[in-house]
Write a structure and sequence with these properties.
12 helices; 2 domains; mainly alpha
Length: 258
């Protein structure tokens, strides 16, 4: 996310110094959200044996991570306030929304909402900081990508989350419907990027849209075949990753026209 924000800043017309400040602001926000998530989830991570988590592995204390998260929130706020007020407001909305996912919305039917809001607010921050007005297609793309990412990211952890009492929207819908939601949202983001912008769609964009429309059903079929053979399939999740990367590439190219 930090790298994408920095590249989008350059594409949208920020000079290098301003693009660097955008990148630093987004990096601080990502650290704050990630550290806060690890501090809050430490007891659940320990229950399911996620030894790759530094707190669970005993590399760092939960208190230290919580303090670091608070400092990163302060750094994000200070950096955001160096931009025009509309840009600062968009960044702080993205931060507050992401932190609200960590607590209390992760285990509620509204768990997808922070992803949609934060992913829409992030490009709004980048464009508002130019300063310019973010187009509606950009906000819609961000929101769709964020919502799709939520459903896709949760799929591999459904069993662990269920064991520790996490009951967000994907958990309530179940694996099959969550996978369908992720596919639909990510494909919708691609369609908005290709068809929702002013002017005729480009040939590369149309090819990307058709490729995404083919990759997702193919991944779904491959995983169903794997399940029938008693194996856990990963093709659909990889298809999600490919479509998301294609969308990011299209977004950066589209940023040149903002």
């Amino acid at each position: 996310m930090t790298a994408v924000a920095g590249l989008l800043a350059l594409a949208a017309g920020h000079p290098p110094g301003s693009a660097g400040l955008v990148t630093a602001t987004v990096a601080a926000s990502q650290l704050s959200v990630g550290w806060a998530n690890d501090a809050l989830d430490a007891p659940r991570d320990a229950v399911v044996g996620r030894a790759g988590k530094p707190i669970v592995a005993g590399v760092v204390s939960r208190r230290a991570v919580a303090v670091a998260a608070g400092l990163a929130v302060a750094a994000t706020t200070g950096l955001a306030l160096r931009f025009p007020a509309p840009a600062a407001a968009a960044m702080l909305v993205a931060l507050a929304s992401a932190l609200a996912y960590n607590w209390p919305l992760k285990s509620t039917p509204l768990s997808v909402l922070p992803y949609a809001v934060s992913f829409a607010a992030l490009p709004a921050f980048v464009v508002r900081a130019v300063p310019a007005t973010p187009p509606l297609w950009l906000l819609a793309t961000g929101g769709l990508l964020g919502a799709g990412a939520h459903f896709a990211n949760v799929l591999p952890d459904l069993a662990d989350d269920a064991a520790t009492g996490v009951r967000g929207l994907p958990h309530r819908l179940g694996g099959t419907r969550s996978a369908a939601a992720a596919a639909g949202l990510l494909l919708s983001a691609t369609a908005v990027l290709v068809l929702g912008r002013p002017g005729p769609p480009s040939w590369p964009g149309l090819v990307a849209l058709l490729a995404a429309a083919a990759a997702l059903p193919a991944g779904w079929r491959a995983d169903r075949a794997a399940a029938a053979a008693g194996r856990r399939g990963t093709a659909l999740f990889r298809a999600f990753q490919v479509v998301a990367l294609v969308d990011v590439g299209l977004l950066l190219v589209a940023g040149l026209s903002i």
